[in-house]
């Protein structure tokens, strides 16, 4: 039997079920209460933690790992590291990207998400990494303070991308402690340990 | 970047009192800065490699943040699939007017469920299609404010052949064909790109492509890379354009009177390029072939080089004019507090 699909390729039954849950106060309420029930129950959370091996503190998330990880399996389990390159000028980006790629290829220990304030799409795309772009401070023209805007974006990114760590940049290179953290990921790999 | 081109076309016809501000999922978005507009980028789930279930909250959060900060009077979404989160943003900012710019020519039977999302918007504007008579998709009969075909470049903005060749770095003399069929190996005549280039050369026509990498790989040289946006401004440099039949390419070549051979992309999920291109062929405005590797492609090249200018004149005569101005007027009426639909 051929599976019916929606116009964007999802199984039709799944779309219908999701729509029914979303549009029903009763069903969505049940779902919310179930989640709250699990989250509020120490034993159930403990079981979920063991079953899904979350003990490493690295949530599974599908996000492009980039060309340096080509051929590496289960990239979705590698931690996502935010490389905060806000303020780094375009002229200094090439060296920074090269450094990140070199560490990533050697450690096979992380997936970078590049945060830039210059639209260097082509340069980042060459490495196959995802990137986010913020309004540059010198282009800022809103009543809100730019620092507050940046703080909000950083918080949003940390949440939505399940960021494991953030490393800063200066003078076209990773800051020294950030580079050390990434280097540690060559051997510090708690997410590979089973706690079951 | 069809959505950016249409939005830029609308923006070009807005009065100076209205400042366009662009949010796009496309990495081509910096091009709008060349028109003096500010922009922001929001990565698509495809660019991120993220599942749509995780991406949707990210999209919604970013959209709400930016609408809150920019405080637009009108939000114009161009696309055929409004993302979940637009509804939440509209609910959060109901003072703004929300417009769906929704091009037609959907493949029959596809995407009908998206039409219900018209309720998320105060107005639906449909950029017209010269091949509208061949549109048998779900949107064809759906309510919308319909305008003429929308292009960013109009005939009045085109530069002369000599200026165009100079601006693009092309030889002053000789026939030149533009091949815009996406990626491929230009030396492989078993592929679309290589076959099209070979057929043009056989007719003594030099070849231009829009990708530098493609031109560089051409054995024996003689292939020119051209880069400009909007390239349509320089179309007089070419005697013939070989292109897929997406909305923008199709209307740019026909509205601007450029002889064209369409090789419709049959792999699109929604855009019925075959219907659009076939209609142009039936009207005698252009030639349409299923593949540049087929024997009839060489004949199409001969025909269009000899008679293409006369043929495309029929499309120019059928053109009701750029619908961008009409769409912009409609948008302005919403800014002014008009009711829309």
List low-pLDDT spans of chain B.
Answer: none
Terminus-to-terminus distance of chain B = 28 Å
Spatial separation of the terminal alpha carbons of chain A: 39 Å
Low-confidence stretches of chain A: none
Shape of chain A: globular
Compute the number of strand runs of chain B. Answer: 12
The tally of helices of chain A reads 7
What does this protein look like?
The complex is a heterodimer of chains A (196) and B (341). Chain A has 196 residues and is of the alpha/beta class. Chain A has helices at residues 12-23, 25-39, 42-51, 90-107, 121-125, 146-160, 176-184, and strands at 80-85, 111-116, 131-133, 163-170, 173-174. Chain A is built from seven helices and five strands, in the order αααβαβαβαββα. In chain A, strands 3-2-1-4-5 form a five-stranded mixed beta sheet. Chain B is of the alpha/beta class and 341 residues long. Helices cover 35% and strands 15% of the residues of chain B. Chain B has eleven helices and twelve strands. In chain B, strands 9-8-7-10-11-12 form a six-stranded parallel beta sheet, with helices on both faces. In chain B, strands 3-4-5-6 form a four-stranded parallel beta sheet. In chain B, strands 1-2 form a two-stranded parallel sheet. In chain B, helix 4 links the parallel strand 3 and strand 4. The longest helix of chain B is centred in the last third of the chain and has 24 residues, at 295-318. The chains are: A alpha/beta (196), B alpha/beta (341). The A-B interface holds A 6-8, 61-64, 119, 121, 125, 130-133, 135, 139, 141-142, 144, 149, 152, 156, 160-161 and B 27, 29-30, 38, 40-41, 43, 47-51, 54, 57-58, 61-62, 65, 69-70, 81, 110-114, 269-270. Chain B: Residues 232-302 form the Glycosyl transferase family 28 C-terminal domain. Chain B: This is Glycosyl transferase family 28 C-terminal domain-containing protein. Chain B: InterPro entries: Glyco_trans_28_C.
């Amino acid at each position: 039997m051929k599976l019916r699909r929606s116009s964007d390729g999802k199984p039709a039954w799944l779309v219908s079920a999701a729509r029914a849950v979303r549009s029903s106060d009763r069903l969505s309420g049940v779902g919310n209460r179930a989640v709250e029930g699990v989250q509020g129950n120490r034993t159930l959370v403990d079981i979920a933690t063991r079953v899904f091996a979350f003990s490493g503190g690295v949530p599974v998330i599908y996000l492009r790992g980039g060309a340096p990880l080509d051929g590496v399996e289960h990239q979705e389990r590698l931690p996502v590291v935010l490389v905060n390159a806000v303020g780094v000028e375009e002229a200094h980006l090439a060296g920074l990207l090269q450094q990140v790629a070199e560490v990533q290829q050697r450690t096979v220990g992380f997936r970078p998400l590049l945060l830039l304030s210059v639209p260097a799409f082509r340069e980042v795309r060459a490495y196959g990494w995802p990137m986010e772009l913020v309004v540059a401070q010198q282009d800022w023209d809103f009543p809100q303070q730019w620092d507050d805007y940046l703080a909000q974006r950083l918080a949003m990114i940390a949440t939505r991308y399940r960021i494991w760590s953030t490393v800063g940049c200066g003078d076209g290179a990773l800051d020294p402690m950030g580079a050390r953290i990434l280097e540690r990921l060559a051997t510090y790999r708690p997410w590979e340990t089973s706690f079951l | 970047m069809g959505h950016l081109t249409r939005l830029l076309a609308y923006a070009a016809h807005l009065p100076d009192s209205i400042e366009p501000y662009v949010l796009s999922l496309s990495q081509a978005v910096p091009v709008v800065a060349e028109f003096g507009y500010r922009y922001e980028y929001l990565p698509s789930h495809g660019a991120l490699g993220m599942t749509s279930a995780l991406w949707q909250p990210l999209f919604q959060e970013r959209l709400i943040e930016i609408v809150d900060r920019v405080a637009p009077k009108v939000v114009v979404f161009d696309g055929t699939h409004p993302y979940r989160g637009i509804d939440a943003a509209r609910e959060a900012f109901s003072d703004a007017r929300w417009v769906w710019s929704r091009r037609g020519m959907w493949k029959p039977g596809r995407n009908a469920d998206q039409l219900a999302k018209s309720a998320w918007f105060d107005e639906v504007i449909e950029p017209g299609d010269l091949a509208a008579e061949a549109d048998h998709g779900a949107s064809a009969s759906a309510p919308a404010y319909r305008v003429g075909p929308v292009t960013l470049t109009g005939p009045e903005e085109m530069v002369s052949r000599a200026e165009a060749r100079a601006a693009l770095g092309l030889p002053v003399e000789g026939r030149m064909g533009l091949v815009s069929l996406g990626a491929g190996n230009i030396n492989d005549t078993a592929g679309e790109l290589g076959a099209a280039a070979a057929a043009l050369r056989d007719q003594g026509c030099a070849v231009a492509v829009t990708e530098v990498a493609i031109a560089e790989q051409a054995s024996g040289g003689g292939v020119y890379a051209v880069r400009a946006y909007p390239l349509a401004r320089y179309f007089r440099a070419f005697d013939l354009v070989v292109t897929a039949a997406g909305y923008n390419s199709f209307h740019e070549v026909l509205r601007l009177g450029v002889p064209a051979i369409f090789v419709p992309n049959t792999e699109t999920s929604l855009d019925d390029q075959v219907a659009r291109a076939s209609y142009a062929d039936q009207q005698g405005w252009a030639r349409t072939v299923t593949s540049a590797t087929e024997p009839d492609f060489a004949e199409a090249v001969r025909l269009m080089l000899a008679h293409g200018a006369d043929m495309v004149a029929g499309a120019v005569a059928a053109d009701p004019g750029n619908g961008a101005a009409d769409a912009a007027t409609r948008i302005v009426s919403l800014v002014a507090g008009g009711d829309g639909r």
